[in-house]
Amino acid sequence: MPNSRKPRHRVKIGVFDSGVGGLTVLRALLDRIPDADYLYFGDTARLPYGSKSAATVAHYAVGAVRYLQEQGAELLVIACNTATALALDEIKAAAGVEVIGVVEPGAEAAAAASRKRKVVVIGTDATIRSHAYRRALEARKVAVREKACPLFVPLVEEGWVEHPVTEQVAKIYLSEAFSPEVHSDDMPDADVLLLGCTHYPLIKPLLRRVAPEPVAIVDSAESTALDVARQLQIESLSSSTRSERRGVPQLKFFATDSAEKFRIMGTRFLGLPVEDVVHVDLKE
Ligand code: DGL
Question: Which domains are seen in the chain, by residue range?
Answer without folding.
Answer: 12-101+222-279 (3.40.50.1860), 104-220 (3.40.50.1860)
